[in-house]
Amino acid sequence: MMAPSRLIVVLVSTLALLFFSHEEAGEIGVNYGMVGGDLPDPASVVRLLRKSGITSVRLYDANATVLKALANTGIKVMVMLPNHELAAMAAAPSHALRWVRSNVAVHYPATQIGLVDVGNEVFLKDKNLTPQLVPAMINVHAALVRLGLDAAVKVSTPLALTALEESWPPSSGRFRDDIAQSVMKPMVDFLRRTGSYLSISAYPFFAYIAQPDKISLDYALGNPNPGVRDDNTGLMYHSLLDAQLDATYFAMEKLESASMVLADSKDTSATPGVYPSETGFPSYGRPTPTPPSPSGGARRLRAARDGCPAASVANAQAYNNNLINRVLSGATGTPYRPDADMDMHIFALFNENLKGDRPDDVEQFFGLFYPNMTKVYDFDFHRAALASWCVANASAGAAALQAALDYACGHGADCGAIQPGGTCFEPKDKLAHASYAFNSYYHHNGRARGTCDFHGAAYVVYHEPAGNCDPNASRCVANAAAGEKALQEALDYACANGADCSAIQRCGPCFEPNNVVAHASYAFNSYYQRKGRARGTCDFAGAGSVVYRAPKIGKCLLPSKAWIL
Description:
Radius of gyration: 26 Å
Strand content: 5-15%
Low-confidence stretches: 1-24, 257-268, 290-303
Number of helices: 16
Distance between the termini: 39 Å
């Protein structure tokens, strides 16, 4: 058995190695569309971006007013060359040079332009321009080279997923026959050669709404779910977005270019990355038989299961917050590419009232903000705001857990609560006690990188684990013994006096299980937290009681403010 002093040395060395070897996480940004009649001016938008902690923005043109407003802000910018310019760009390198000079070089480096998107979903929107796409990309890149900007500014083009002939299972992913060898092969070779990546417009929303009887909503949103297995590879997918990304990786490998990495190779270093330059979820809107996608094209929509609309504030908030948390945490890999780096851009910054065909078109409601610059729902792009917990890894084994637990308790963790008689002593289980100690140590050290490893005995999670115990983070739950009548009266009181009960309404994320005890627990806890957990605010004439361990009711974990920094 390793001596305690030796274990400490190993732990410290491991933590230091993890700290100094960690690469920067990917970038999470937004798409700034301007198809609205009531949008704020660019200067106001830039102030909003900075206030919100949004560090990257993607444009659908190279609007000079916007680019000037973004100057000297440190915000990374992606510009787009519109489809109608493709033919001229492909035909004349001189035209590409003029465009790059007047739309990129004139603004750089004051405005941190890092990418030029050549066209937008060309295969979907302007099929007749397909032969001109790669030549236009080559000429734009050549212009950047001539101006000495090619190291800083890359070239790509966003593809709609309709470019894939097959996307499930991901290992069967392949491009359509009409574009695979003629367009995608030279494009991927160009991206690899220039150090760029493939951009895709990925919308799990549309896949879900088309097949709600076959696709789980939690799987589409990226919420915790049992997952779906690709039987060809044995890989498990817990996110439809991951499946779409990996399908694109497999499709690239099937091109079988001599300069590409083939599908059966273990070396994937030469395969360009796949970045979702456009992804999001609408907060409202009525599905129609054939609405266009957010950036064009027709997709067939149907009603969601149980009569509940897929386009809802709760679903949009879940999807986009899952994206934000994922990228900020550095978890940008996929099952097939676990070490892949990835930038993502959420569609869209604003609700845009001139999109779609009618006032309630789902097209208009993908925004994070209303045009008056208030949030549609809560989110936070600031890395420091990302809530995280450190939990024990059961597979580490009892001896490793005990050694790491002892180390945590001896080096800053407050372990009084897991001593006999303490608030978190039960359950008397090594895994539970280790999770408590590891989490206390992790937060005591400011959640610094490397402070939740313990030589492999722990790992970080970004959803509060069910059963998490914290003596400083109390919750209020319903007392079933009070009876249904008393619980209903107290529930009504809580909802009418400050509790946010929207989540327990029909179609809300916490509606199930549909019973008074579950709904009362949610309402009581909301009331209690909003009142600052003041004494007496979790009584409800005996219908409520305070607990210190995170209770899970159905799919909902009752929230606490304790670890939200």
